[in-house]
Amino acid sequence: MRALLVDHSTASGLRLGESPDPVPAAHQALIRVSATSLNFGEVSHALSQAPDDAVLGWDAAGVVERAAADGSGPPPGTPVVTIGPDGAWAELRAVDTAMIGAAPDGADLGAMSTVPVAGASALRALRRIGPLLGKRVLVTGATGGVGRYAVQLARLGGAHVLASTGDPARRGEELRALGAHEVIAHPEPAGAPVDGAVDNVGGAQLVAAFEKLAPHGTLVAVGHTTGEPETFPFGALVGDGGRHDRSLVTFYLLDGSDLVPDLTWLAALVAAGDLDPGISWRGGWQRADEAIAALLGRRLHGKAVLDVKLG
């Protein structure tokens, strides 16, 4: 099969080449990949650490080529969204059926490919905060892939959404259109305390967001794009009468739980136009180097999608 292979001799770290077809385990389906979306963590960390000729990639959408031998998962011909620790940047992918969601017939599979990491991370992070109706929820890194989904889903859940971005003057209208009630520049004060926060940035922004939590509030640490340490000043973790029972929780999407319902539900919302996938760059996988350079250069606000085989 054709695949994007790790090649550290190239500028992007990738080249199009040939790789052996994957051999699915009994609980895995074989997927014919139509599109994949890139994530910052893949191109900034995983790619640099992987050996040459490896096939990476977390997100992929396509069609079931061969159903799982154990009878689980969707039948052949089903359009699907998939997630896994690797294997998405190829024509064929073997995926655990617990990590496959069905997509509506006729859906744009490029848009579907944005759902797994970004959409599911936002959904599950918000669930860690608890019921959202009437709550104040802060989303940092709100113009990124996870951030955009988190703003929209928090609004759908009935929250008062505060979207934090590095450039509110330019991105404010866009974020309000997605559902943000307020757009702020981090670390600008968020006004009244917030009941929950989804942090997609890390470093000093995570520390500042934690300081904004109301009693019983929860901050979910999803992204760490700054690469900076989180240094809390003395007193930041004191639980006095105004700051008691606040929680800081770590996050890992591939924790072994069944992702099928979440992926299927999110795919249906994107296909129906109820969620904006936020595609800011799209092209054939021959142009992967362009997409990677744009991501690493922080020139993209949203998702980069590679269509397999298209120019």
UniProtKB/TrEMBL annotation:
Gene3D superfamilies: Medium-chain alcohol dehydrogenases, catalytic domain, NAD(P)-binding Rossmann-like Domain. GO terms for molecular function: oxidoreductase activity. Residues 9-306 form the Enoyl reductase (ER) domain. InterPro entries: ADH-like_C, ADH-like_N, ER, GroES-like_sf, NAD(P)-bd_dom_sf, Zn-ADH-like_protein. This is Alcohol dehydrogenase. CDD domains: MDR4 (cd08270).
